[in-house]
Write a structure and sequence with these properties.
The chain has about 1900 residues and is α+β, with helices and mostly antiparallel strands. Helices cover about 40% and strands about 15% of the residues.
């Protein structure tokens, strides 16, 4: 029984106290005045009566009512029902208020104006019961009595209210009356454990909606802060009540304030979770709360801040809950689409709906917590049950370990309360207990059927409703309300009177006395055993949520264990990999623990070394996949086993398995040990009571039910039984049981202290080695030597030197372990009620236990060191290059598979990876060499290596090895040679050794200076060479570099002084002829060969050789070949030579990144160059680098202009300047320079007659038209492709009839002006006439430059002149740079703006390309596939762009226009384009010598920044690797693929260059310019080092040397066309991924270091010879794609034949001739023998090359290059025109194939056998003759099947066909008429058919062919 109301309080406005202008409330009266003992009076009621503050108002407000909730210090809730009404103030009171107002700083003067003010007054009932309606009625009645002046005294009513007593629960109903003629019925709930909600839950869902309430529900359960806003106080209370109701059976235990007064708003910034309601009036104050979820009840919104993450219910629960809720709240939804919806579908009444919603949440909790009782550990039964929840097991069995929501709920306070309240096994039960235990099966079966769920929900709702309303029919309320008149009239009411304390107190005292005399009411509690429901395991397994392990896998595990214990080690070894794979699955792990258990006898199992090793390995593998919480209980099951399995080490010394399985997180997790301890304690206590019970009643065993499903009584059931019996026991018996339980717990604590010391103390306690987790306290963790019997052998020595803790005392380890165990013991003993004496005893015992164990371990460790180490694979030494030395010797590692499938065996090959071996660091490479872990391919050797210089990324990783025990430290090393080494260090590699490896690697990768790279240090000592301080060998070079620098300084200072005629001691001025000439004007092609003279006369002898080398450089050799400037000794200067070789840059003063000698126009003087160069970036001004042999157009290269240069270059000439400024003159000189280049072109000089205008228009047309008409139509299209074919910008000239731009030439300008005029053209970016057709000449319509020329007299345009004309010079510039300039109407150059690929783009694209080709891990995501990643990398797009621009330039040069490529800094894209243009246009560059020369000239001499772009030194490390040169080689490879017969070198040659460009093995691709090379003294080194002839410094020398030995770089298909210009397709669809990026040779590493290959071959042959004595060997050999080097295993046919020839010659003792000579001989003999064609032919064994001049000889004869394979594929693609767009309707490859290869389908007009007489004295022989009318030939073969033609009679040579006569030796039995003769202009052919008719047919056929011709 309980009081309905504890206190009645009257609270009014405090007229005397006002704080800061705000009114306060004060308690006027309270009854009773003394606090009740069981319920003290709550403080601060006056704040809660007016939560928004106490204020006076000018108008009377209607009375209001709400219930606030206060929580006291004992977390008891007090319900304060506040009834507030308003009373008018009389004048003296008003004066008080006014005075108060006046005291303040006149804040609200408006208040004073009102004649009458009203103050609030509240009547408050404080109760511990929540009967809102009853309180509303009672307070309303008191107010009515007061207002209407009823006869009943107020004191009586209040006295009756305070003395009303009602039952708390039990489902009774009580009628109460307060003595004013009223009557109310109060119904108490049947079970007060279930919350009473009225209709508040339904109301909450209506206000916020399903999803929002679910968010709030999850937020409350996962302990977030929730704030409700509403303008209604009662709604705030209801919403909070509703939220708490749906959380049942969990109880909310944090701050709960449904109505928070405004004065206490700072409570909202508390750090703890809360549920609080606040009036919307204070909304603005809640805005800055960052971590509070705000639910606005009036607006229906829930706002979740960004920083708050709410974990939602796990699926499918969330979805099912939402469905159920929507069926309750909106049942019509389901039928809303039906044509005939049911009539009666309406939502239930609010009160019923409320219960239905709560039923859904009950159903939800029953599913969430199903089986929770099986995870309770009962650790004490008497005197009170102590219960713990095993969270890990619960989550593990539900397979929800990853679920965020459930984890948080189980960790929360609410769940802790749930366990302590519902854990005890013997107590009163409620609806939830029944649901979670007995209806699990039903819920599980129905969960997917919403309608069945709804039926269940309705049943539950009925029970909930009945609990709240046990007597629904009774509603006998009679309560007076105030009369309408009293409410509406505003007459001056009497204020609420002061009540008589004594009268009220009398009522109370009387009631108390009466209570004391009545007998006490005993609450009958029906305690019972709480049912547990079905165990969890069954539920989950039937759902199939467990990770399935097939029976086969379990069988493998069982068999392997059986083999181990039967000592069948070989069998076990074979099964081991499969077992370790199977152990990934949970059931296999459980199976392992069960199997091992069977082999333990009396807690002990002694094994021999190998058995022990295997068992430990399996245990480690099992533990490694367990999380630290051990949710599946695997570690728990293994714990007894690790202390059981052992092996004998020596006299009385035993090593247990636990010393080898310590390296797992689970052992350092306190929660794991607690759960283990509790479960063991539970088992022991259960055993304790089972024994006593068994003594009493043995009949228990017979009570098993038939199914046998309950094999034994559970611990909870047992505890329930004991709790039931507890009151019946005597005091002594009770004490005895308590003591027994306590000592059981104590003994377990000692046991666990031992167990923990076993697993936490490392075997080698002398080293401070602790587990990685910080669980063990403060000691730094070092990795453990968990290794089994290899602990000693492979590690003993390394440990002492490398652990870094030599001096550490073992006491550190002991202390930390003792601390850990002490913490554990304190926690579990306090929780399980161990006595203090016992606890003290434990604390003294633990250090002794640890110390004792350490001593045992020392002996074990000592003995284990004596064991022979495990047989690990022998470390294989790598073969090194000459001059390569080891920096770090082999460290044992495992090579882990990356994302490439080939080597892992997943694509069908052998599983070569993972492999075990060692990693070696040399001065040049990083090499892994080892053997595959898989025993089936164990005899193969796996090698993976890459040059250190190519390392691009190094990353630490953690690797889990299947074979080995646990996670290991590893490294992932990525190289730009498209290689990836993913290694895991073996356990024997100490961590600091691995660290030192990383440091060495880093030092070698980024030396401080380029001299630290391998190319320089090769052959020197193996120490890391950083800054060599040795004296320079080459003195002359040193002096030269000094001179260079001096001269550079001098020149720079002189440039600004002006051009004085001073003559310092420079070499030009000493020359005999030009003493007074200004030094800069000397050209190399002067009357006297200036270079020869100056060299000899000026430089000291030591420098002479060096400077003469300048002339020998690649550039000069090429200039001479192209006829650009001469270097002859003739004294006559060729005046008509348009270009000269300038020595202006001889000291690298003009441009440091250019070569010393440059080609410039003849009439440009050297000083001008200095000035021009300043306009260009990096001073890289335009110079000529190539000239077209036919059109004489030149190709120039330069950097882009400086920004100011661009503007001044195209400045408008209209602004006259009095004095030409510096910029102006520069601009003029620049213009002169371009004009000079244009003037030097033959086409220009012819047409202009040295720049006269008349010639300019006509002659030019004739000269260029005739030669170029064929090639014209192409360029426009090309332009469109390159520029994206944008429409002209508006603002051009009117197009006129012909749509071409008019060009006006004023006669006053005899020369083309360099300053651009304002031609009204928006952007000069779009190309003129790019594809606008001329009406008169459609052929020329698409030509590039649409210039029209007016007549000389400026008259109207004559149609004759309307022919387009191209510019003389096209400048390819960067779009971004050229914005804003204007094109001059009379310039003879034109700019083509293109978009260049930025260096950053290339870098990023390359990174992505590497990741696509060599992914670091396997993935099945569709958007991570190779092709998708390749596309994302945009590498092919970049190639396409470069090729496209190059093809455009080739076309322009071919049509006679010169081109200047002027992009970026002139050393990246410019170099690519210029090199490709020369390669495409000039066949010379497609030979070995030519390509070398091209690279040396364009890439090395013209200063491509190899060191910077390759990030070769520490300085350039940050810039990253940017493979501009690799991109160029890829472009060459694309062209090679399309024109395989045009290149002398093979694909392998390109790959070789690509590899060594990144490898730093040679000095060729080091340093950024010739200047740098001269400074370091590497430019003109002697060919090779005399001391070490093995070491090649230049890649070219190396290639030459190799090429002489073997045809590795040669392309057998090389059969060039004369002067062939290649025009490759550039579309992405025509480009192929270079196999250089994808191929790998695991047998012996990358195939680009030939010394290694030859050495490995010789090594491989030796053992082969020895083995030959045995049985006959098969010649078959399996070739594995990613393993074998295909060129070695399967050489192509010709290489094979050449090799065989060499071998035979060697066997016969002949001197073998060089392969090249042999090959050339074969080719020449073939040509002379068979003149099948009018053209010289190609080796007929491959291809008889036909007249393919008009065809594209692309897919030609795709003989794979000498590295890739042997098949010869023939097939030629023809194309109709040379456009770069694919041509439709190509003939199929097969037609060409047959044309050359087979005799079957030739154009055979007539064929058959004829006898032919040989030369004199030779016999007649039958031959198969073929008459071919198409080729106009008569061919003959040995027989019909013969493919090789024996001879050809050209019909054009036949003069007559005459009947012949039989001669000597003619075939017998042949008619005379069968003979006929063929007379040619050279000889007679005597032929004979088998019969005369046949002979006649032949004669007629031949005759008709002749007449046809």
């Amino acid at each position: 029984m309980a009081r309905l109301a504890d206190y009645f309080v009257v609270v009014g406005y405090d007229l005397d106290n006002r704080v800061e202008g705000e009114g306060l409330g004060r308690i006027l009266q309270r009854f009773p005045e003394k606090d009740w003992e069981d319920s003290p009076f709550p403080q601060g009621i006056e704040l809660f009566c007016q939560p928004s503050g106490w204020q006076l108002v000018p108008e009377r407000q209607p009375a209001s009512f709400f219930v606030a909730v206060l929580t006291d210090i004992n977390s008891e809730r007090h319900y304060c029902a506040c009834f507030t009404f308003w009373e008018g103030l009389d004048s003296p009171q008003l004066k008080k208020v006014d005075a108060g107002d006046a005291d303040e700083a006149d804040e609200e003067p408006a208040v004073v104006q009102h004649a009458k003010l009203f103050a609030p007054k509240s009547l408050v009932v404080v109760s511990r019961l929540d009967y809102t309606e009853a309180f509303r009625n009672c307070l309303g009645l008191i107010y009515t009595v007061h207002v209407d002046g009823l006869s009943t005294p107020l004191e009586t009513v209040i006295g009756n209210l305070l003395t009303c007593i009602i039952p708390v629960a039990g489902g009774s109903q009580r009628t109460i009356t307060l003595g004013a003629g009223d009557r109310q019925v109060i119904q108490t709930p049947i079970n007060d454990a279930l919350p009473v909600s009225g209709s508040s839950v339904a109301q909450l869902f209506r206000q916020l909606g399903i999803v929002n309430v679910l968010y709030l529900f999850c937020a409350a359960l996962t302990e977030h802060k929730i704030l409700f806003l509403s303008s209604s106080y009662q709604r705030l209370t209801d919403a909070c009540r509703g939220l708490l109701a749906i959380m049942f059976p969990l109880k909310y235990s944090f701050t709960y304030v449904p109505i928070l007064p405004g004065k206490l708003l700072e409570v909202l910034s508390t750090p703890t979770p809360f549920i609080i309601g606040v009036n919307s009036f204070f909304r603005s104050e809640t805005q800055e709360l960052l971590d509070v979820i705000i639910a606005d009840l009036d607006g229906g919104t829930v706002t979740i801040p960004e920083c708050v993450h709410i974990s939602l219910l796990p699926e499918p629960l969330l979805q099912q809950t939402q469905t159920a809720l929507s069926m309750v709240l909106d049942p019509e939804l389901e039928f809303s689409d039906q044509a005939f919806p049911p009539q009666s579908m309406h939502a239930s009444a609010l009160k019923i709906q409320d219960k239905e919603i709560r039923a859904v949440f009950l159903w939800l909790f029953a599913r969430l917590f199903q089986g929770y009782r099986w995870c309770l550990h009962i650790i004490r039964i008497h005197p009170e049950p102590v219960i713990r929840f095993h969270k890990a097991a619960f989550l593990g069995q539900r397979s929800l370990t990853e679920d965020d929501f459930l984890m948080k709920v189980l960790d929360g306070m609410a769940f802790a309360g749930f366990v302590s309240e519902r854990g005890p096994p013997y107590r009163a039960t409620d609806l939830f207990d029944d649901l979670v235990a007995n209806q699990v099966e039903r819920i599980r079966q129905e969960e997917t059927y919403p309608h069945k769920v709804m039926n269940h929900v309705k049943e539950l709702a009925e029970q909930l409703f009945k609990n709240e309303n046990p007597y629904p029919a009774v509603a006998m309320h009679k309560v007076q309300r105030p009369s309408e008149t009293s409410q509406s009239t505003d007459q001056s009411r009497t204020p609420f009177p002061v009540l008589d304390d004594v009268a009220v107190q009398l009522f109370i005292d009387h009631a108390v006395a009466k209570l004391k005399s009545s007998p006490p009411v005993v609450k009958v509690e029906l305690k019972s055993m709480v049912p547990s429901g079905p165990p969890l395991g069954d539920i989950v397994d039937r759902n199939g949520n467990v990770m399935a392990n097939s029976a086969r896998r379990l069988e493998v595990v069982r068999n392997c264990i059986t083999y181990i214990f039967d000592n069948k080690m070989l069998e076990a070894k074979k099964l081991m990999p499969a077992v370790l794979r199977a152990l990934k699955g949970r059931t296999a792990r459980v199976c392992l623990t069960q199997e091992l258990n069977q082999h333990v006898l009396q807690n002990r199992a002694v094994l021999d070394d190998q058995q022990f090793d295997y068992i430990v390995r399996m245990m480690n593998c099992t533990l490694q996949d367990c999380s630290h919480m051990d949710e599946h209980g695997i570690a728990a099951a293994l714990l007894p086993l690790v202390t059981a399995f052992c092996r004998k080490l020596g006299a009385g010394i035993t090593q247990f398995a636990y010393s080898c399985v310590q390296e797992h997180m689970v052992w350092t997790t306190m929660q794991f040990w607690e759960a283990m301890f509790y479960s063991d304690v539970q088992n022991h206590i259960k055993a304790l009571y089972m024994e006593t019970d068994d003594g009493n009643k043995q009949s228990n065993s017979d009570q098993q039910d038939g199914s046998g499903s309950r094999r034994e009584i559970s611990a909870l059931d047992l505890a329930a039984e004991q709790n039931r019996l507890w009151p019946t026991l005597s005091k002594e018996m009770q004490m005895e049981r308590v003591q027994k339980e306590e000592s059981t717990v104590f003994s377990q604590a000692i046991h666990y202290a031992n167990r923990m010391s076993y697993l936490l103390l490392p075997l080698d306690t002398s080293k401070n080695r602790l587990l990685r987790s910080s669980g063990l306290g403060d000691v730094e963790s070092v990795s453990n030597s968990y290794v089994t019997n290899s602990i000693a052998g492979s590690m003993a020595e390394s440990y002492d030197t490398e652990s870094g803790f030599e001096d550490a005392e073992s006491s550190d380890v002991a202390n930390s372990v003792v601390r850990f165990i002490n913490r554990f013991v304190d926690k579990v003993c306090n929780e399980s009620g161990v006595t203090n004496e016992h606890l003290k005893a434990l604390h003294t015992m633990i250090p002794d236990i640890v110390q004792m164990h350490i001593e045992t371990l020392d002996a074990v460790h000592r003995e284990s060191k004596r064991l022979p180490p495990i047989q690990k694979p022998k470390l294989l030494r790598p073969t090194l290059l000459p001059g390569e030395e080891l920096v770090m010797d082999g460290m044992r590692v495992h090579l882990i598979p990356d994302g490439r499938d080939e080597a892992t065996g997943q694509m069908g090959g052998p599983p070569l990876l993972p492999a075990e071996g060692a990693i070696f660091l040399t001065t040049y490479r990083l090499i892994f060499k080892g053997t595959p872990s898989d025993a089936l391919v164990g005899e193969q050797i796996v090698t993976r290596s890459f040059p250190i210089a190519s390392l691009t990324k190094e990353k630490r990783i953690s690797v889990t090895l299947t074979m080995d025990q646990f996670v290991q430290e590893g490294l992932q090393l990525r190289s730009c040679t498209f290689q990836l080494l993913k290694i895991a260090f073996d356990e024997e590699v100490a961590s600091d050794l691995a660290e030192s490896f990383r440091k060495h690697l880093h030092k070698l990768r980024f030396p401080q200076h380029v001299q630290g790279t391998f190319a320089f240090t090769v052959g020197q000592s193996g120490k890391l060479v950083l800054e060599p301080k040795t004296k320079d060998k080459n003195q002359s070079l040193k002096t030269l570099s000094k001179n260079l620098v001096k001269n550079a300084k001098r020149t720079i200072s002189r440039q600004y002084v002006g051009r004085k005629k001073e003559a310092p001691a420079t070499w030009e001025n000493r020359s005999t002829f030009h003493t007074e000439l200004d030094e800069d004007e000397i050209s190399v092609s002067e009357e006297v060969d200036q270079s020869a003279l100056t060299l000899s006369s000026t430089i000291r002898s030591s420098d002479r050789q060096t400077m003469s080398n300048v002339v020998e450089r690649a550039c000069c050799r090429d200039y001479q070949r192209l006829g650009l400037g001469t270097l002859s000794n003739s004294l006559t200067r060729s005046k008509n030579e348009p270009f000269r070789i300038s020595t202006a840059n001889r000291m690298y003063t003009v441009c440091r990144s250019y070569p010393g000698l440059l080609i410039i126009p003849q009439n440009i003087l050297d000083p001008i160059i200095h000035r021009i160069s300043r306009c260009y970036r990096q001073n890289r001004f335009p110079v000529v680098c190539w000239r077209h042999s036919r059109t004489k157009a030149v190709l120039l290269r330069s950097a882009g202009l400086h920004a100011k240069g661009v503007v001044s270059f195209f400045k408008s000439p209209n602004a006259p300047t009095a004095v030409p400024s510096q910029a102006d003159s520069t601009s003029l000189e620049q213009e002169k320079y371009l004009q000079a280049i244009i003037s030097s072109m033959p086409s220009y000089s012819e047409s202009t007659g040295r720049n006269t205008l008349s010639g300019f228009t006509s002659t030019h047309m004739n000269t260029s038209e005739s030669s170029d008409k064929l090639r014209q139509p192409k360029i426009g299209d090309l332009m469109k492709q390159v520029l994206g074919n944008k429409e002209d910008v508006p603002g051009t000239f009117s197009r006129g009839a012909l749509g071409q731009k008019a060009k006006v030439i004023s006669l006053s300008q005899p020369k083309a002006s360099g300053k651009a005029k304002n031609s009204p053209r928006g952007k000069w970016g779009s190309i003129r006439g790019s594809g606008r057709l001329s009406a008169y000449n459609p052929d020329i319509g698409t030509r590039l430059a649409g210039k029209e020329s007016p007549q000389p007299n400026g008259g109207p345009n004559d149609p004759l002149f309307l022919r387009q004309q191209k510019a003389y010079l096209y400048i390819i510039g960067d779009k971004a740079q050229l914005k804003g300039g204007k094109q001059d109407s009379f310039q003879q150059w034109e700019v083509i703006p293109i978009e260049v690929c930025d260096v950053r783009q290339v870098k990023n694209s390359f990174k992505k390309l590497m990741k696509a080709c060599v992914p670091s891990s396997q993935t099945t995501e569709p958007n991570m596939s190779f092709l998708r990643l390749l596309e994302d990398s945009e590498w092919m797009t970049l190639l396409h762009r470069v090729l496209q621009v190059s093809v455009l330039v080739v076309e322009l040069l071919d049509t006679g226009s010169s081109v200047m490529v002027s992009l970026e800094d002139g050393w990246d894209v410019t170099t690519q384009v210029v090199s490709l243009v020369q390669l495409l246009s000039d066949p010379y560059y497609r030979t070995f010598d030519g390509f070398r020369l091209l690279v040396e000239k364009e890439w090395l001499s013209f200063g491509h920044r190899f060191s910077h772009r390759g990030a070769q030194t520490l300085g350039s490390q940050s810039s990253g690797f940017t493979p501009v040169f690799l991109q160029f080689l890829d472009c060459v490879h694309q062209i090679h693929l399309q024109f395989p017969m045009e290149f002398e070198f093979s694909h392998y040659y390109l790959k070789f260059l690509a590899y060594h460009y990144m490898s730093n093995r040679f000095r060729t691709f080091l340093l950024d310019s010739d200047y740098d090379r001269i400074e370091l003294g590497v430019l003109y080194e002697e060919k090779s080092d005399r001391r070490n002839p093995q070491v090649c410094k230049s890649v070219w020398d190396y290639i030459d040397r190799l090429n002489k030995k073997a045809p590795v770089f040669y392309n057998y298909m090389y059969s060039p066309e004369d002067e062939e210009v290649l025009r490759p397709y550039t579309f992405i669809s025509n480009l192929k991924v270079w196999d250089f990026y994808l191929e790998e040779t695991l047998s012996d590493g990358p195939p680009y270091d030939w010394e290694l290959r030859s050495r490995q071959e010789s090594l491989a042959e030796e053992p082969a010879e020895k083995a030959e004595t045995g049985a006959p060997k098969s010649l078959r050999h399996i070739v594995w794609p990613c393993y074998d080097d295909l060129s070695k295993v399967m050489p192509d046919a010709i290489t094979k034949l050449l090799q065989d020839l060499q071998n035979l010659e060697a066997e016969l003792g002949q001197t073998s001739e060089k392969w090249k000579d042999t090959w050339d001989k074969i080719k020449t003999t073939q040509r002379t023998e068979t003149k099948l064609e009018s053209r010289p032919s190609f080796s007929s064994s491959l291809l008889m090359s036909s007249n393919l001049s008009h065809q594209r000889r692309s897919q030609g004869v795709c003989l794979q290059d000498s590295r890739v394979g042997s098949s010869i594929k023939l097939g030629l693609d023809c194309e109709a025109s040379a456009t770069s767009t694919p041509v439709a309707g190509r003939p199929s490859t097969s037609t060409f194939y047959s044309q050359f290869h087979s005799t079957e389908s030739e154009n055979r007009s007539f064929e058959g056998i004829l006898y032919k007489r040989g030369a004199l004295l030779k016999p007649w022989k039958p031959r198969w003759f073929v008459l071919d009318k198409t080729k106009h030939q008569l061919r003959y073969y040995n027989n019909r099947q013969d493919k090789d033609c024996k001879g050809v009679i050209e019909l054009s040579d036949v003069e007559a066909v005459i009947v012949g006569t039989p001669t000597m030796g003619a075939p017998k039995n042949v008619e005379e008429k069968a003979f006929f003769d063929l007379k040619t202009d050279k000889r007679m052919y005597y032929l004979c058919a088998q019969e005369s008719s046949n002979a006649q047919l032949w004669m007629d056929s031949i005759q008709s062919s002749l007449s046809d011709a």
